[in-house]
């Protein structure tokens, strides 16, 4: 369980209270500047926020950095590589401590194969394309809390994970995140693709001007009446191929 109690950052987003059950995939949507990244960074314990965050019954303010890193991992929106270390070394910095090496190898391959990183492991992180670097950052974030390596791994916080990824790699990430949730993990993901959210999220938080103005199921939140005033454009909901689709105009 993840609990947020009156979580806020002055001048960035107003107090927000929520409970998220194991196995839930939450998408945060909203225009640029709505407060998505600030909320994610606060849940991660990376911003000087007011209010409380507890993960699996533990208040994050009472945890050491090491304890927190076992419970949650966090992909920030942007981050450029700082040194020319090879990909495998960068990934090793994110692997949970005291893991069985065979289990580590297996998990690493399970994450690297669908993201086509096996042949990039010895390449310096400074010589990757933008999308390749994003895939490496994603594998590192997943590795940190992957439950078969780290049984305390509970929460995955991903700020615009699809940035720079082609459609095949976006689908691959979706499958991996869903597997994490199927094992009882919680994923909280910011997203600009409303149809992607509609098809993938089990819960949606809609943010506008520093406030979560609607939270609940896709059906309850992702409707034209909620979205139009937030984005300032009109929306229609259509059915195609047995699924709902949102069209903006
Ligand atoms: P989003 O991720 O939804 O685009 P952000 O959380 O990045 O929005 O920004 C929310 C608000 O906080 C915006 O008004 C933005 O200008 C402000 N903000 C973002 N980063 C900082 C910062 N480092 N210092 C002060 N204000 C910031
Ligand atoms: Mg952001």
Write down the CATH topology: Rossmann fold
Which sheet architecture does the biggest sheet show?
Answer: 6 strands, mixed
* Sequence of secondary-structure elements: EEEHEEHEHHHEHEHEEHHEE
Round the Cα radius of gyration to an integer and report it. 18 Å
Give an account of the 3D structure.
- This protein is of the alpha/beta class and 249 residues long.
- The protein has one domain (2-80, 152-248): Rossmann fold (3-Layer(aba) Sandwich).
- Helix content is 34%, strand content 27%.
- It is built from nine helices and twelve strands.
- The protein has helices at 36-43, 65-71, 87-92, 101-112, 130-145, 167-182, 194-200, 218-221, 224-231; strands spanning 2-9, 13-20, 25-29, 50-55, 58-59, 72-75, 155-159, 186-190, 203-208, 211-216, 235-240, 243-248.
- The strands form three sheets. A six-stranded mixed β-sheet has the order 6-7-8-3-9-10, with helices on both faces.
- Strand 4 (50-55) and strand 5 (58-59) form a beta hairpin.
- The protein is globular and about 50 Å long.
- Residues 12, 30, 32-38 line the site of adenosine-5'-diphosphate (ADP).
- Residues 36-37, 77, 159 line the site of magnesium ion.
Topology, pairings included?
Layout: E1 2-9, E2 13-20, E3 25-29, H1 36-43, E4 50-55, E5 58-59, H2 65-71, E6 72-75, H3 87-92, H4 101-112, H5 130-145, E7 155-159, H6 167-182, E8 186-190, H7 194-200, E9 203-208, E10 211-216, H8 218-221, H9 224-231, E11 235-240, E12 243-248
Parallel strand pairs: 3-8, 3-9, 6-7, 7-8
Antiparallel strand pairs: 1-2, 1-4, 4-5, 9-10, 11-12
This protein binds adenosine-5'-diphosphate and magnesium ion.
């Amino acid at each position: 369980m993840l609990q947020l109690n009156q979580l806020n950052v002055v001048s960035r987003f107003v107090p927000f209270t929520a409970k998220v059950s194991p196995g839930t995939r939450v998408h945060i949507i909203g225009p640029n500047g709505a407060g998505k990244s600030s909320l994610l960074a606060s849940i991660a314990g990376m911003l000087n926020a007011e209010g409380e965050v507890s993960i699996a019954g533990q208040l994050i303010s009472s945890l050491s950095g090491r304890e927190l890193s076992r419970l949650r991992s966090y992909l920030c929106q942007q981050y450029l590589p700082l040194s020319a270390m090879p990909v495998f070394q960068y990934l090793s910095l994110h692997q949970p401590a005291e893991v069985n090496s065979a289990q580590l190898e297996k998990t690493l391959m399970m994450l690297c194969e669908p993201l086509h990183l096996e042949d990039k492991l010895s390449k310096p992180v400074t010589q990757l394309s933008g999308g390749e670097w994003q895939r490496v950052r994603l594998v590192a974030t997943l590795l940190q809390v992957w439950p078969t390596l780290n049984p305390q791994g509970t929460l995955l916080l991903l700020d615009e994970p699809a940035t720079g990824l082609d459609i095949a790699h976006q689908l691959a990430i979706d499958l991996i995140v869903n597997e994490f949730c199927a094992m009882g993990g919680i994923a909280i993901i910011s997203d600009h693709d409303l149809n992607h959210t509609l098809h993938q999220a089990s819960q949606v938080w809609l943010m506008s001007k520093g406030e979560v103005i609607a939270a609940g199921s896709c059906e309850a939140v992702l409707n034209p009446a909620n979205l139009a005033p937030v984005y300032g454009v009109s929306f229609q909901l259509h059915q195609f191929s047995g699924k709902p689709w949102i069209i903006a105009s």
